[in-house]
Amino acid sequence: MPFLDEFVSRGMEGGEDAGKHLRNAILEYSKFNPAYRADDRIFIWIYANARGLSRTYKAAKIIPDETVFEHFMTGFNRSHQFSDFIDAGPHKEAADSKIKAYFEFFYRNQHCQHVMLGASADNSYAGFLRPLSLPDSKVNDRITMIEGPPFAADLRKVAQGFRQASFKTIFRSSKIEVVPNGTHVITAGVKRPASEALISLRERQTSKADAAVVTRPRSTDGNSTHPKAASNPSLAPSPFIFQNQYGQRLDAPLSIDKDYLKQLYNGHARLCNNFYLKGYCPYGSGCEWDHSQRLSQIQLDTFRQKARTSNCRNPFCVDPTCCLGHMCQRESCNISQCKFLPEMHNIDVSKVYQYNTETGEKKELKPS
């Protein structure tokens, strides 16, 4: 639920104005509630990955510097003693888990007259809200869904079971889009932004991996072995990831086997993502997925490409073992309906950096 750019770009002053406008809009909306009383208290909680969001605003050229967003948050908190804009941290689902916990606590509290939820572009709330949207839930008349950007596909259906509102003078009606920059290259059957440095990276990786065979050793009890304890040191996860100049995670292009990709999608190979892509599986012999295959390097890259069709929730992910996608692979995409976040589309790859997650060292890659 991004605020209008005109609020965010003004830093502290804009944050204070946004807080006051939002509180006033909620107050006016509440007056239509039959249970409204003049002395009702309105509490506002906003949770976000503040660092990631500030980087997105900067990458979208809405703010010149990340500190502007920090000042915006401070201004919002100053707008009222019951208005809180809180940094939930960068780990996955951090903000969502906070919102869901507060939401559940208050809709169960009979002293709470009404709950309003602003999360219109996030499908992850659909399953959480679905049981409450049913007519016999007895709580759906105490819930209002606020629409900023259009409701995500699954959430749109669930939202029909609640009251709905939109505050167009406060929230954006579209997601934040990062300004595209760079050329395009055909990679793995799809068209995606690329740069010479990123293409060069793929070529260097391919030349080093030709004819390689990857196998995951097992311990004597049948459990998978952690890569650092394996006899082959190449199984240890690399600490290096790739980023653009704004710190957004980049997925290096992969060379794939299209026939093998069809086998993976047809369900002929039930491979374990943890075991093959992260190097170890915590479930060991109890895992229901296959640990027994020997994969060539191109098969392993093909399997990684398939895993990337599921999106990571953090565009600034620094987990070197994360095998999910950080860049939408579609040539043309309806961003408002896509499961990938808006900032994972048209990513600026004019400069590519190799980032060492262990040492914090960042090195720009030049085309070879």
UniProtKB/TrEMBL annotation:
* UniProt key word Zinc: yes
Q: What is this protein called?
A: C3H1-type domain-containing protein
Could you tell me which residues belong to the region Disordered?
A: 209-237
Q: State the organism of origin.
A: Exophiala sideris
Q: Where are the zinc fingers (C3H1-type)?
A: 266-294
Q: Where is the composition biased (Polar residues)?
A: 220-237
What UniProt keywords are attached to this protein's entry? Metal-binding, Zinc, Zinc-finger
Domain C3H1-type, chain residue ranges per copy: 266-294
Name the InterPro entries for this protein.
DUF7923, Znf-CCCH_tandem, Znf_CCCH, Znf_CCCH_sf
- Taxonomically, which superkingdom? Eukaryota
